Structure formats: structure tokens, C-alpha cells
Amino acid sequence: xxxxxxxxxxxxxxxxxxxxxxxxxxxxxxxxxxxxxxxxxxxxxxxxxxxxxxxxxxxxxxxxxxxxxxxxxxxxxxxxxxxxxxxxxxxxxxxxxxxxxxxxxxxxxxxxxxxxxxxxxxxxxxxxxxxxxxxxxxxxxxxxxxxxxxxxxxxxxxxxxxxxxxxxxxxxxxxxxxxxxxxxxxxxxxxxxxxxxxxxxxxxxxxxxxxxxxxxxxxxxxxxxxxxxxxxxxxxxxxxxxxxxxxxxxxxxxxxxxxxxxxxxxxxxxxxxxxxxxxxxxxxxxx
Length: 287
Known about the structure:
By secondary structure, this protein is mainly alpha-helical. The chain has one domain. About 75% of the residues lie in helices and about 0% in strands. Helix 2 crosses helix 8 (about 200-225), helix 3 packs antiparallel against helix 6 (about 145-165) and helix 3 (about 65-80) crosses helix 7.
């Protein structure tokens, strides 16, 4: 498959996680904790199968394993819990913005070189996110669910930073899912159920399996096969499309409304990230 189409399908898979999660919870066919647990188990099974098929083994060792597993659990359950109330596009934007801020902070902690454009881009992106979340400034967002998605963003950011320590990304991701899945199942069993909460129906289970096995498992595997073939800046820019795709999916499948202030906040967040990651000096030299 040509690289462009492979990258396009991967970004669609990432955005589909938001749509599938919101579709399951908005339809009342499953609760957030059960969705997260089934997603983890389905992802673990799929990734384990891919490791056995492509690597011939599953290696549970590796650096940053505890941090990776804990961060994955925070991401999965924060993500699922947030979509009890957030629209797909808004949730993806909060997630994406906080991931970038977390990784920026991680770079500062590791004393990486931070050129001025990266500071400018981070401030622009943070301003757009703050504008979106500020009470009364944009679409009505539940503070609790906005916080849950922000925690999910921190979790995914830390997970990505921990993943830099591993040479084999597919093995590391499979191992993290395999180790996190039983913990997630126990957490779900211990999770207090809300009175009159959603029952676990067939549609909810199928959506969670699709999210775990296909848009997470296969999606991550495709992404790891793409990364060695494209530059870091191309990879970063490609991910800018994820919140936009999620917003379009929410409008098509969930009849979510498009708000002007949300569009403007999206432009600020994605524009700020683009300023941070695009190698502007190299682009000028190439011209």
C-alpha cells in the first residue's frame, strides 16, 4: 500500500477511537469502565498475535515498563470516562493538546534544547486549549469530563515519552497492553456502578472490541511500520489531522454540532503545534 494511503488510514484509525468510544457511551450500551477493560483485552490479544506473527515471540522485559503500563491505564480510563459527556471532536482536541503540552514538559525535564519557535507554538496551543475550556468562553464542557480527558492526555504523553526507551515499539506496546489488561479488568470489577447505569450490551462490547483490536491494535501497528519511513516533522504534522477527523466523524455518526469558537480554538491548538514541530529553517533552505 502506498505510504500516503497507509498514513491516511492510520490517522483515521486514531480518530475512530474517539468516535467509537463516544458512540458506545452515548448510546447507553456499555459503561466507561467496561469499555476500557474490553478495549485493553482486545488490544492485548491483537498485539500479542501481531508480535507472534511478526517477531515470533513476546518479550515482557524492557525499560520503562512500570511507567508505560501505569500511563496506559490512566489514558484508557480517563479517555473512556471523559466520553460519557464530551463530543468526539472536543475530546480529541483536548487529548491532543494536552499530549503535546505533556511531551513539551517532558522535553524540558530532560533538558532538551527548546528553540524560541517551540516556546511560541506551545503558548499558542495552550492558549487555544485554555480558551476552549474556559467557563462560558466556548462550548459547554463538563469540568469533570474535561479533566478526565486532560488526565488521559497526560497519560498518553508519559506513555509516549516512556516508549522512547524501547527499540522495538511493537513489542513494547504489546507488552504494555498485556500487562495492563488484567489490572484493568480488576479495576473494572471493583469500580462502583452508578445507580441506573448502562448495562453491557452486545453493541457496546462489539464497539469496544473494534476500538481495542482494530483502531488501537492494528492502528498502532500500522503507525509503527510508517514511522521509520517518514521524518519526525511529517509524523507530527500527520497527527494534526486527528482532531479534525474525529470532529467530522462526530458530526456524521453522532450528529454533533459544529461550533465557531470550537473551530477557532482548534485552529489555535493545531497551529501552535505546527509552529512547534515544523522544521521552519530546513523548509526555507530547501526552497
